[in-house]
Amino acid sequence: MQIIQWAAVGVAILGIAATRAAADEPLKAMTFNIRYGTANDGENRWPLRREAVAETIRRCDPDLLGVQEALDFQLDYLDQQLDGYEVIGVGRDDGRRRGEFAALLVRSDRLEVVDWGTRWLSDRPEEPGSKTWGGDLPRIYTWANLRDKPSGRELHVVNAHWDHRSQESREKSAQAILEHLDGVASGRDLAIVMGDFNAGPENPAIQQLRADGSGLRDTWAAVHPDAARPSTFNGFRLPATGPQIDWLLVGPGWQVQSAAVIQNLIEGKMPSDHFPMTAVIRTSD
């Protein structure tokens, strides 16, 4: 099991080897629930841990990052602190800046944003603030078509935050994401699906995403098939003993090289009440 804690080509004939190396360059993806910044968290409130969040991201150095529970001022802070990322997403309450984002941060020197959008996990997916599946709050996912600059391939990413109470909402959210992937040009082959799903591995909604017919693979299980599953929710307490509720899944066109849960303090500070997950992936051909 890989629980990360911080510690200290030859010449190409006719350019063929160099082209292959560029096309196969690994991509690092990361999902991170950063805990909404207006929460009454006492010694763990946002102004006291925001640098720990930014430093965690810097150390992980992802090409593609999905954050959940991010409010507009938190995204503004990360945009100021992190170099080289394009931030995309909208607030779930009004489709602009109000309410939590399920935003994507895309490293501009590696990935080109071709198209993107946000959909609501309800019977009215285009209506900002809508909620119809038994949840108390609006729930969303942000999607993007991205072009990988080294290879020229197009990939599709979905970053979601599911409901924390309604099982109906979680199961319908899983189905909505699978149907969404069926409707995009790249399909599920080079898909990346990440987020805080508020559901452990035995939950039917997670099993639906991980079913053989879905085409999606759990990056953690791909690398650590016999290891105990890590806790990803910590509640600002160590050791964390809860289930894995944060997920990073990929389509069949990806090889998974590594996967990790980052359980670290930064100068004694817990960055969030969730641990981030990372995976290093590369195209399989």
UniProtKB/TrEMBL annotation:
InterPro entries: Endo/exonu/phosph_ase_sf (IPR036691), Endo/exonuclease/phosphatase (IPR005135), TDP2-like (IPR051547)
Gene3D superfamilies: Endonuclease/exonuclease/phosphatase
Cofactor(s) needed for function: Mn(2+); Mg(2+)
PANTHER family: TRAF AND TNF RECEPTOR-ASSOCIATED PROTEIN, TYROSYL-DNA PHOSPHODIESTERASE 2
Highest taxon of the lineage: Bacteria
Keywords carried by this UniProt record: DNA damage, DNA repair, Endonuclease, Exonuclease, Hydrolase, Magnesium, Metal-binding, Nuclease, Signal
A Pfam family per the record: Exo_endo_phos
Gene Ontology MF terms: 5'-tyrosyl-DNA phosphodiesterase activity; endonuclease activity; exonuclease activity; metal ion binding; single-stranded DNA binding
Annotated GO CC locations: cytoplasm
Location of the Endonuclease/exonuclease/phosphatase domain: 30-274
GO BP: double-strand break repair
Signal peptide positions on this chain: 1-23
Alphabetized SUPFAM superfamilies for the sequence: DNase I-like (SSF56219)
Name the record gives this protein: Endonuclease/Exonuclease/phosphatase family protein
CDD domains reported for this sequence: EEP-1 (cd09083)
